[in-house]
């Protein structure tokens, strides 16, 4: 299932190659790969985000057993997203984008290792589904980056997405992450798989707060931006500019 998901995203990548690109992207070769990569990321966010919402809506009883609750839909979703993270890791490495995308590589390594452990043991799948609610937020975050890259002459569209993105960040990224962190620290034994997943979760907490501070500086407090630190070869942050 995971290998099949990798193949699906490989096909989506080839499809993205055939799609038209904005002039602002075509004029800067360094942006062509980034644009295509974001399109594939957008497809994963839409599919995985809606899938996670459906899984929890269809089986709300799962929320009462985060450690041992199980659903076929949730299991398939974790396999599907694992395939995406593997595909995106390979895409970054094979296209020599590791230097500008090292944060993605760290995040993907954490996600892949955690998800594989869930697939093998069948435990904590509900926690993974809750974490994948973040993909609902990523839909609007990716739209934000695509708008910036394409220089769409529509300030109203960017501004509307900016505020929607902030709300979604709280609802589908910060809230599920905070709840799971509280749950793991209070109820999960810090040994074996529980210790491994708790450590991953705490590292992810730090990354999410760092991304959130970047987002606030960029969209709401631009005067606080740190100059050119952390920029890629095109002079823009890869994750959040």
Automatic annotation (TrEMBL):
<dbReference type="InterPro" id="IPR006634">
    <property type="entry name" value="TLC-dom"/>
</dbReference>
<dbReference type="GO" id="GO:0007009">
    <property type="term" value="P:plasma membrane organization"/>
</dbReference>
<keyword id="KW-1133">Transmembrane helix</keyword>
<feature type="transmembrane region" description="Helical">
    <location>
        <begin position="167"/>
        <end position="185"/>
    </location>
</feature>
<feature type="transmembrane region" description="Helical">
    <location>
        <begin position="38"/>
        <end position="57"/>
    </location>
</feature>
<feature type="transmembrane region" description="Helical">
    <location>
        <begin position="126"/>
        <end position="147"/>
    </location>
</feature>
<feature type="domain" description="TLC">
    <location>
        <begin position="30"/>
        <end position="224"/>
    </location>
</feature>
<feature type="transmembrane region" description="Helical">
    <location>
        <begin position="197"/>
        <end position="216"/>
    </location>
</feature>
<dbReference type="GO" id="GO:0055091">
    <property type="term" value="P:phospholipid homeostasis"/>
</dbReference>
<dbReference type="GO" id="GO:0005886">
    <property type="term" value="C:plasma membrane"/>
</dbReference>
<keyword id="KW-0812">Transmembrane</keyword>
<protein>
    <submittedName>
        <fullName>TLCD1 protein</fullName>
    </submittedName>
</protein>
<dbReference type="Pfam" id="PF03798">
    <property type="entry name" value="TRAM_LAG1_CLN8"/>
</dbReference>
<keyword id="KW-0472">Membrane</keyword>
<dbReference type="InterPro" id="IPR050846">
    <property type="entry name" value="TLCD"/>
</dbReference>
<dbReference type="GO" id="GO:0097035">
    <property type="term" value="P:regulation of membrane lipid distribution"/>
</dbReference>
<dbReference type="GO" id="GO:0071709">
    <property type="term" value="P:membrane assembly"/>
</dbReference>
């Amino acid at each position: 299932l995971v290998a099949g998901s990798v193949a699906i995203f490989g096909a989506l990548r080839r499809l993205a190659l055939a799609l038209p690109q904005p002039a602002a992207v075509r004029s800067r070769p360094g942006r062509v790969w980034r644009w295509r990569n974001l399109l594939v990321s957008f497809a994963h966010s839409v599919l995985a985000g809606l899938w996670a919402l459906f899984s929890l809506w269809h089986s709300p009883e799962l929320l009462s057993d985060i450690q041992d609750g199980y659903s076929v839909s949730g299991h398939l979703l974790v396999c599907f997203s694992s395939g995406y993270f593997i595909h995106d890791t390979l895409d970054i490495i094979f296209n020599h984008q590791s230097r500008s995308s090292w944060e993605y590589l760290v995040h993907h390594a954490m996600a892949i290792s955690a998800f594989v452990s869930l697939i093998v043991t069948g435990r904590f799948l509900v926690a993974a589904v809750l974490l994948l609610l973040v993909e609902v937020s990523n839909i609007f975050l990716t739209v934000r980056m695509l708008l910036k890259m394409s220089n769409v002459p529509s300030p109203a569209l960017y501004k509307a997405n900016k505020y929607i993105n902030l709300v979604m960040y709280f609802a589908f990224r910060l809230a599920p992450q905070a709840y799971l962190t509280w749950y793991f620290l209070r109820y999960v034994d810090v040994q074996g798989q529980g210790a491994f997943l708790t450590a991953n979760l705490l590292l992810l907490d730090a990354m999410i707060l760092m991304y959130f501070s970047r987002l606030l500086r960029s969209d709401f407090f631009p005067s606080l931006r740190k100059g050119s630190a952390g920029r890629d070869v095109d002079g823009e942050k890869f994750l959040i500019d």
